[in-house]
Write the structure tokens for this entry.
Amino acid sequence: MGKHRVLVIPDLHAPYHHPDALDFLSDVAKEYRPDRIVCLGDEVDFHALSFHEHETDLYSAGHEYDAALDFLKKLYKLFPNVDCCISNHTARPYRVAKKAGLPSRMVLDYSRLLEAPRTWRWHDRFVLDNVVYEHGDPGSGRNAAYKAMTENRMSTVIGHVHGWAGVQYSKSPFNQTFWMNCGCLIDIESLAFAYGNKYRNKATLGCGIVIEGVSAYFVRMPT
């Protein structure tokens, strides 16, 4: 059995994060007193670098980058020691560099790109107390966390799927596992998410708590 109390930060998509995201995370941390922090990725959006059609009325790439870094500096101060999952949005600069043919030695690593402290570490996925934490792409839909759990064969926590959040458990004669989708902490009014206007299912705001690797909770953000 694990011994950690983990606060799980879902997709923020800075600088298009919810304006109350930091205050909410601070309040949750004060209530649950975690000793480990895991960020599920998409901590930044990099909307201007998308290969998809994007909103031309949003920031330019440079302005967006500066605004995201301003937010991240506050996040680093609030949570100075974090294990973070590599994710599709945060990886956009690397995809652009690869498409342009740049060799890897010409590209900054995540820590330098995001001007992070050395105590922020990036992983493809992160395992703590026999629980897998990963961003969740390319999964989608309400069953994305369940599918990830069955493929990992371990309790699993994901972000990525903004429209669904919550926890479910399954028990066998040999063990018990859970799967949790942590929703997101985006500003749903931002043009960066205008593509979602046509969908009835909207973003679910909140974060996760995992206690000793056996109990998990989705903490809904008051709206």
